């Protein structure tokens, strides 16, 4: 009963139509997207953000498990001698999934892939032993610099443990962990990560370029902006204190903000290990709002392993 | 319903799967719009219920979106397919048992998926927020079994030709499974960067274009002729609608990322194809409205016709917006603003929901052989939905225009937030009206099943007078 002529012709035309549309919308763009060389921004971001910031088996509950850290090194981790210029290093402790560009170097684009392989020796990095990466650059004929990933564990013999130790906690940014908090807490439902190509760049910074995303996952552009774009927020506002007040209760620093309070990211205890009394804080804050107190209650300092710290590290990494 | 899960196939009454899907859809609609109204309240009053991770806006927004898309809209679609496909083929549903299991597993999977999303386990990809194993579950236990049932019913039909509604049903269940699998490739194979961003919107566009829009339209192709008694105005315009959906609606995915650094040719191509979406839109709306010739009294007198025609009328502004707002000339102004949120609700809460609500009203009365319990509650449902939606749409459109102006004139963002505040309150009121209307509906349908007047054999629901 199915086998009569109209439906055979129709089925073939349907296959042709849908196949054609898939060819144009999936197959053809893939050539363009695969030929893009990763820019400095993309390399930096994929190295600090790590393999995946959404759901993954390495961190199913988005709690910041198995994440790299970004550190600023002021002393050489091998010799302990001060460095002339501080170096940014990306530390992948043993067992941490490697960044996408190291796992799949062809995603870096042909030029970056070749430099990262030949000069950066990224092929020698292993997840089991962990690795430390840095960004390096090669001058080009036209006066520009071509950035690539260098596996400092291979080229300089740096191990994750000694780099973390040499940097110290105050120079360590848990930006990858923080990005998973950004994804988990749905910050991107309001704060986009995509300054638009029209007028946005004057307020929110330069709109990203074609090669600025290689290796990033998820890109979490956001589509429904109800708050400022924050792709470059770290360049506009680098105050840790402001961020801390703003996350605890945005109305402390911006009375008209509609952002939710993220005080729960502090966890149960503050930096000194003392229990935070949220009920008391809220009661005192309400008194302040009603005009019964002159000053708002003090925001507790977050613990160094709290979600709040990681989220602030992430936001400050958005340069 | 649970007793039929392990019953013998011949013991399961015809239409059981459709009834199961229908009531599930209404319950999800109540949950989904309740969450939406609650979320809106938090945008209007940010300190309302605060300090708890589980009721924070960022955890609940995506639960609202997925509850209405996969719970309400898609289960109402499945319900419509379970009773329209066999009716149009003059046959029985291929497998009632598969249908019952499909509805059961749909509810289980969706509850699980939404719980995970709520707890923060997300892929971080808009509209494909579910972690990849939930995506695989959705394809394996939700869309593919639905597709098998629809296809097998069409194959075993006792009519010679296939009616318009069934072309759309058969095609859409096929396309949605493809879209689901391809759109989630970034999660299955960890594709990153712009590829991930583009595929995210390729999925989001196509799940609307190749699933929600065509199936909603297909439902209207059934409801209007069935209830009005008029034959479809033109089979050929139906052809034009069908083929232009397949060709034009499957291609403009990139227009969702007009200001992202995608290849320019891709954005231009998507934009042109996006305007061509007006072809199926005009074909559909004209076909349905012309079918109503001579029966316009039913627009006032009959609830199903009123819902369907209102939905079709809302397709006009919907497609005018949809066709033009994605061109570069307009998109730079309204991209990423509340205008888009208003447009998305015009598509899902306006156009599509009104058509599905009619299908669920009609289907449940037909299958339960019971006349709608109360016309008054039905009218209240209609007007709460329409007034609530309109309040929402108007306020969000204005808020979007304010945001657009703020964007191009570089107003400090906090001033935009302050200017939007009254519209955020209006949005919450609109959402609350929709939620309230749906509560009436759930009660009304429940009472219809229990206490509606029995429809005599050989009669249709709309031939009987309302009693309350």
Describe this structure in words.
The complex is a heterodimer of chains A (319) and B (468). Chain A is of the alpha+beta class and 319 residues long. Chain A folds into 2 domains: 40-176, no CATH class; 181-317, Cytochrome c-like domain (Cytochrome Bc1 Complex, Chain D, domain 2, Orthogonal Bundle). Chain A is built from 12 helices and 5 strands. In chain A, helix 7 (175-184) crosses helix 12 (307-317) and helix 10 packs across helix 12. Chain A is globular. The termini of chain A are far apart. The relative contact order of chain A is 0.13. The model of chain A has no long low-confidence stretch (mean pLDDT 94). The two termini of chain B are 28 Å apart. Chain B is mainly α and 468 residues long. The mean pLDDT of chain B is 96. Chains A and B meet through helix 1 of A and helix 1, helix 2, helix 5, helix 7 and helix 8 of B.
Question: Could you name the key traits of this structure?
Answer:
heterodimer, A: 319 residues, alpha+beta, Cytochrome Bc1 Complex, Chain D, domain 2, 2 domains, 5-stranded antiparallel beta sheet, 12 helices, 5 strands, 36% helix, globular, B: 468 residues, mainly alpha, 16 helices, 75% helix, 0% strand
By DSSP, the count of extended strands of chain A is: 5
Mean pLDDT of chain A: 94
Distance between the termini of chain B: 28 Å
Helical segment count of chain A:
12
Strand content of chain A: 5-15%
Rg of chain A is 24 Å
Low-confidence stretches of chain B: none
Spatially, the strands of the biggest sheet of chain A line up as 4-3-2-1-5
Helix content of chain A: 25-40%
Largest interface: A-B, 84 and 81 residues
Helix vs. strand class of chain A: alpha+beta
Q: What is the overall shape of chain A?
A: globular
Shape of chain B: globular
- For the secondary structure, the number of strands of chain B is 0
Main sheet summary of chain A: 5 strands, antiparallel
Counting copies of identical and different chains, the oligomeric state is heterodimer
